[in-house]
């Protein structure tokens, strides 16, 4: 390897003059501590250092684009901000309005999404967290900036968002990797065309964070998805170890000892798994459905009749199974309010959430469903166990959302998913085990400002949790509690 040859060349310098020269030529002053690892346990240096999927997209990129859009980025003397047609957020009124829309989305962001982004117009300079940027810039942004950013800048931004959504996954298909590579290449080329416009006085716009992401697909093919080796886990570990420090004198020595103890305990747990009790045992009153699906309280104390439209949905569901019921047949069911999914999320229901004021809610009743091989989205009314041919079957009564707006979906590189809630017309009964995840569906304010064709009513936009598969690895399960 070239690195090893360069290290050897530096080490074998015959005198200080040659050492200084060779250090300058190679950029190497001494062997790295990682050279001490056995070769069979390391990818080699510098190949063992993959790109950072945390700080680059979650901090460096927003730190470039948001000042550009606000018109606060450094402007050369030979340039003029009056020519910056991309600075759509430059006026205080527009920036404050945009910030309010971000804050207004909070009640619709499920608790499993962790910390929601605060109003950027008020808090972006007050310790805005990487996770907040991630939800704001890569989750809410494509919908909230639609109609605000000029179209070519919005499309360019959406290309980057889509590519990073792919690269933040724990499982990435070859076709997705090719898609992200194409999008990042197009994004960086178009960024220079749209923003720099061949002007030397705008060369400082092109930070390393513009072109570095284009290496991520190749790095993913070489060492695997970046989320596996990202700094999210390390940052959390540092935080957890810091929480264990009770003696503030010799803090770093204490931190080292806590880290050593953690490693020893983890090694024992791997060798003897029974040493560790379940971190999140099922609470009293829950019902294990199998396949890592678990019904959770609250639960009705008696069976109650469903509504007229829900009864129609039940008859339609049973008819699809070959069981026809009379037109006046109304089932009596015992409702459940929550279900834990295999990915660790807890899906809730309208039955209980509707009793809470919106400002105190983190809505978790909107779900992603796999129906007949097709992805759909729905709002859950309640869950139940129903006898089908004498077999207890876990079901959910839901109201489906309609098809997404295909043109906006394509124009946004699949990042802006907006759809109408079908209301009473969309009431259906589904198998609980078709539920894949909990999602955010928030009222789509921007669509209504841009389109007046009658479809703007009851329209919602989608956000899924970034890196959701991390929850399947046990890094983000919701804590289970009893509810009444």
TrEMBL record:
Descriptive protein name: Uncharacterized protein
Native organism: Mycena alexandri
Superkingdom, taxonomy of origin: Eukaryota
